[in-house]
Amino acid sequence: MTNRYSIVVTLDFLHKKVRGFERIYIVNKALRPHKGFLLSFDLPSLNIKGISTYQKYRRINTLVFDVSGVLIDDLPTVWKANRDAYSFYGYKALSMKEFKEKFKIPIVEFHKSNGIPEKMTNAVERKYRERYPIYQHLIRVFPEVRDVLSHLKIRGVKLGISSNIPSKFLGDHLNQFGILAFFDAITGQDDCDEQKPSPKSILTTLSKLGSNPKMSAYIGDMEEDMIAGKRAGVYTIAVDRGEAYQPIWRLKIHNPDYIINNLNVLLNII
Question: Among 88, 126, 219, 242, which residue has the least CB neighbours within 10 Å?
Fold first, then answer.
C-alpha cells in the first residue's frame, strides 16, 4: 500500500468523479514523456483500471478553448499593460501578486474592484489596448500546443475558441503562433455582447461549429471559465500550469470535470 501511494505522489495527476467515488487519473511521464500515459485508480482499492474504463462513459467530439493561460502565456503582457493604464490615469498600479489575487472577468468588474469609477472604465480599457502591443513580444505559446492541436484535428475533433481577449489581439496571436488554422470557430471579446462567466460566448462558438453542448468540453484556467462552462452545459476542463491568472483552488470550488497540468493529457481523454 505504501508503494502504491508513493507512485501517486510522484506522478502528475488530475481528479474526476465517476459513479459516486473519486478517481485519480495518473499521467505517467516516465512511461511516455511526450504524451503522457493515462491510468486510473479507484481510491478505495487503488486497483489499476486503465484508460478503456473511462472511454465507456462518454464521447467528447468538440473542444472549445480559452486562450490566455491555456494556449498562450500572456500574463506578463496583460499585467504590464494594465499597470500602465492605471498609472496613466493616476490609479494605483497593481503588483503582479496583487494582479493575480484580484483578477476576474468581466473586466469591468475587475476595474471596479480596484477603485476605478465606472465612468472611467472605458478610458482605462482604451489605454490598456494602446499599451498592450508594446509588451506583445513577451507572449509565448505553450510548448505542447501545436502538437496537441494537430493530433486532435487528425482525430476529427472539432476545435473552437471562446476568449475574452479583444478580437483583434486574439486573431493576431493565433496567426503569429501558427495555430489559427486549427480552429473552425472563434469568438473573441468584441464578437459577443456578454463576457464570461456568461455562457454566451461558448454557446456562440458551439453554434458556429454545429456542436451539441452535451458532447463538448470547455478548457480554461479561471473560475469564470468553469462557471461559464457549467452554465453552457458542457464538460469543464481546468488547466493548472502552476503559474496562472488564478490559483487552482478558485477553479476547484466549481468542481470541474477534469484538472490537467498541460494539454497533452487531452489526447488521453478525448
Answer: 242
